[in-house]
Predict the 3D structure of the following.
Amino acid sequence: MSTSPPRPVSVVALLADVPSTGLLGEHQAHRFPLRGGELGERSAEFVDFARHHISQGHRVIALYPKWHAERAQRAVAFARGSLQSDQIGQVSLDISPLALSLIADQVAYLAPYVPPGVAAALATELTGNVLAGAWLKRVNNLSTIPITFKQHVGSYVPKTTFLAFSAPVNRVGRVKKRNPARNIVGRPMEPVQILVARPEGAGIDEFNNQFTPALRPVSLNALPEQPLGATYWGMRKYVEFVAFSGHPEALSNTVRTVRPTPCAWCRELGTAIICPFCGAARQLQAGRPPARKADVPPPPARTTGEHIRPAWVEQPKSEAAPFPLHPGPALPQRRRPSGQQQPRQPGGEQHQHPAGDQQAEQTEQKSKAAPFPLHPGPALPPKRRQAQSGPQQPPSGPHPSMAVSGPNGQPSGPPSGTEPSSEQAETARSPHQQPPPGAAPD
């Protein structure tokens, strides 16, 4: 046996001149047209109704149209102040009068089976399950649903028809080529039923021939005109309709979709940002909590991000490591011959070339083999590199100071300004090619 206190029961009141559709029989919301000049006069009936149910431990949910809310809001505030109670909640709905009448009766039918906060949330959820609107000839005076300038000008064109929807979304569209199927924004669950309300003198043949076949309803019921219909649609001749699902589980499925959270002030369950009972701001959840532990996905096996990489993405290629992965003995470097060491020539003794020609040949070979220096470092000028390559040898040929003087004190060599002969130059450049003493000349 449960020891928890009994759950409070809620009752639904509709604060507008919106008659019932009679679709749900005795399960209807209590209507209060709020007629009268003074605030106390037009709110007296609603205050008595609220006092009676609050004394019995019930909650009162007041529904009213958002586009006709001034009198309803003042009546709720007057009742709360008179009774000194926050057990009266208020919910505004931005839908047409015929759809408001149907949804108010549906909330009254579900109110005894759900908490008061959930019943208030169902009023908003049920608007997404119906298709409510009107078949209009003009929209130039329509102020409850946004229209474009093109649609406003099109209202003055003869033989023009518009489809205006208030639920599940607010939208106005022009019917083209007598085909309204492209204008329909949603379709309730099968089987579909339609309620139609129109004023006297408004034709319904065009509506039945074009719109009704697009929805394929199983039933169509005609109702009297709603008193606030002309105020909402902005004209006297219109065909108002609301399409809903006649499935036995249509209402219960809507209840299952509601995920309420408790109010931080009054602890009442609900889904609205502002609590309909105390007016406190509600902290909404970021997402739906899991129903079972099995719904929680396991953590990923790896945290590198590779497990979520798509299969078509090319895997990155690993680059070669600049250093060996495992330490080991360094390989011996190849020694290069220095400026003083030259490779031995085969079949003969080693001869030394002059330092100038030898350095020029080495520099030319290095410039052809490696365009960049083998070891990183600042480049040195050519003269300094030549000076550092090894000990320099004196240039070939006799030094001017060592020349033998002639008979008149003149040097015995060729006169200045004259070039030596080719034989002398060749002998000076390569002395090792001269024949040995005692050999016969060529």
Remarks:
- The first strand starts at residue 10 and ends at 14.
- The mean pLDDT is 77.
- The first helix runs from residue 39 to 55.
- Residues 130-247 form a domain with the Hypothetical Protein Tm841; Chain: A;domain 3 fold (CATH 3.30.1180.10).
